[in-house]
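Q: For a teaching handout, I want to show students what a protein-ligand complex looks like in token form. Below are the inputs, and the small molecule is NDP. Please produce the holo structure.
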Amino acid sequence: MATSQIPQIINLAGKSALITGASSGIGRSTAVLFRQLGASVIAVARNADRLKELVEECETIKQPPEFQGFIHAVSADVTREDDVDSLFTSVQQKFGDKFDILINNAGLLEKGSILETDTKQYDRVMDLNLKAIYNITAKAAQYLINAKGNVVNVSSVNGMRSFPGVLAYNISKAGVDQLTRCVALELAAQGVRVNSVNPGVTVTELHRRSGMDDKAYQSFLDHSKSTHALGRAGQSIEVARAIAFLASDAASFITGVTLPVDGGRHAMCPR
Ligand code: NDP
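A: Here is the structure, written as tokens, with NDP included.
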């Protein structure tokens, strides 16, 4: 079979996607991959300079003529109602009354056990990791119904398994998994699919932003060799590829799943 006759399983040409947390890590890799696969992207995060760098990188991508599309950056704090309202004004301007794919990726990690946490930390973590997803998904629902589109939430292995010392984060991700299944059932009749990816430790800025210095982060990555069956931490592109699969028509009969992208960590038990 000639190379040109090999079917491309994952193809997002002609699709339009809204990606939150696109200025670094998993969200940034997803935005670049979606542009490479032909999607038009609205990339959302707070840091406008880093979004500008993302747009510049995407503009260098060489694509076949049938992969038309664009990337548009919107600087917004997704925990702020007024920012989200402005974001949806941009969505209407750029995508019209429908768009195909919502990637709820923006998130943060804070450390703290039941002995160390407080309601301020709980609110910060839940506001971004769960309430913002609830709000954005609700606002996006009619657009997705119009397009018979889909949602991919970026949850965590922490949503499926219990790790001490990051209590609010664990609860928020368990909530994301429940939201994924519930909204999948609520929107299935309208042809909208809703899924999650559940990454293990992935090399991004998440842990350093949570307060780890370079030395602690390196030792955390070394430790990840034994906490992940495949013997290493993951890379953001490995999560982005799973997101692209779930968001594509290749996953047309998949909804309500929470897909571990974690080198087997979810399957491990201490012994
Ligand atoms: P990063 O810290 O690299 O990226 C987080 C992204 O979220 C950034 O683009 C950041 O941009 C954005 N963000 C943070 N706060 C807000 C806000 N209030 N409004 C809008 N955007 C915001 O981390 P990751 O790429 O690792 O994280 C992405 C997702 O992956 C998260 O949901 C995380 O929980 C999940 N995850 C990560 C794992 C890991 O090991 N890295 C493991 C499992 C899950 P900006 O600062 O510009 O706003």
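A: Two things your students might notice: Residues 9-205+237-261 form a domain with the Rossmann fold fold (CATH 3.40.50.720). The chain has one domain: 9-205+237-261.
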